[in-house]
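Long-time lurker. I teach an intro course on protein structure, and each term I like to show students one example going from raw sequence to a predicted 3D structure in token notation. This year I'd like something fresh instead of my usual example. Would anyone be willing to generate the tokens for the chain below so I can use it in lecture? Attribution to the forum is fine with me.
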Amino acid sequence: MRQLKVFRSRLLLGICLTWACPALWAEAIPLASATIADLNAAFKAGTLTSEQLVTRYLARIEAYDKQGPKINAVITVNPKALELARALDAERKAKGPRSPLHGIPVVLKDNFDTIDMPTTGGSLMLEGSMAPDDAFTVKKLRDAGAIILAKVNLSEFASGGAHSSFGGQTLNPHDLTRTPAGSSGGTGAAIAADFAPLGMGTDTGGSIRGPSTVNGIVGLKPTHGLLSRDGIIPLALTFDTGGPMARSVYDIAVSLGVMVGVDSADDATKKSDGKFHKDYTKFLKPNALKGARIGIARDFMGADEEVDWVVESALSAMRAAGATIIDVRYPKWLLAAKTEFYSAVRYPEFANQIDEYLATTDAKYPKNIQQLIAKADTFRSLRADGAGPNPRRWNLMKREAASGTLEDYAYTSIRDEGLALVRVTLDAILSSNKLDAIVYPTSPSRPALLTAPATAAVELVPSATNFANLSGFPDLIVPAGFTSDDLPVGISFFGPAFSEPRLLALGYSFEQATRAIRIPVHTPALAGDSITLP
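-- Reply from a regular --
Happy to contribute to a lecture. Here you go:
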């Protein structure tokens, strides 16, 4: 019997060698490690279909979002996701793929309009609200063949902690006692937990970048105007932008090229005319750090010695890859003014700009901030589904409503003069030091405990994230390492307007040298969570 088994094995080996048997040469890799390029290779080889891929992600959502650790990232699963996947598989077979995103599942922060699923902004006041059409970037994704798999939780109206009155509290899959950060916390947690390979967040003061770093993933806050904001619930249009979040720099680059373009419904995109690229993957070079000049912004270190250690280790990796590291300091007036500049614009813009969005909703929904506040006062207890009061955000709405008009000098002076000064100063720091980018710890300290007091703490070491919003400049976050209590630390690559090609190149080079990403301990691989590459 043993001789017969040996004979059969040798016969199979001979057949495989003769006919280049895929099973012999195939490589199985974890689903969480697969880039969109890997998924496309598996699609092409016939070892994976979009339907199979969607099924695996739905299984992970089922196992980990409302059960198990109860990450609570997902608000709405697309009921037609599998149907769409089957149709896209058939289209691929008949015509070939539309783009690298053909058949790729995507999760959206629930402030992106979708014509087929409600858009709530995480608020009970917009429960069940159906948008008249897709947001510009959502349409771009669908046209490219992407599957909108789910809408995910967020800080209510994209401000505050990672909690909403409609979606409740999202948890960090690395540590269930820690915040996943806001406002794109649902997207950050979902991508970290591998509910999809790609997600979309929005960023007004760090809302893509905070969740990216504390969930240990990659995220990009693009240059203001590179991506359209049409169909996104506004927080402050002077600062707002959407942006991709993923588990690799490649996936950020490949998705960015699909979504760019001048949009007649968003004047800010005119700034990108002639400056965007349809393919950002061509800039990804493993040796991009060689010869690069990188500034380290030490003003944003000193809050947490373990975060600082990870950053210093990251700098060592960059030096080993051939980069020159230069210490840079921001002017004291700039550090002191950043919060006041930000609030002077952010608060009155939400109070005045939300009306335009609310005008697109059904008549039964509030039409201005005062009506939102009045509606909020009618919700006083937790519902059986976990929805309920969000006093922290609702109190903030009252402060926003009292912040003045868009004609007040306190607003116009900062918007028209103060922000220009910030841009000039940051540009000067970059150019005078001949820097390709400035790096800094995206979050100066580890993510806060969910039980930490909601009152604002004194900022002993400032966060640098809202400088990218004040200036409109891009900021790329890449995982850099972990603390002794296994919490992720991210590093930011910050550069001048429309420098995404260079930032992505540097971030990719750093990523390839360090590989500082892993699946969270609370959302491990399920049986069958792998793909086979040719």
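Some talking points for your students: Confidence is low (pLDDT under 50) at residues 1-24. The chain has one domain: 44-533.
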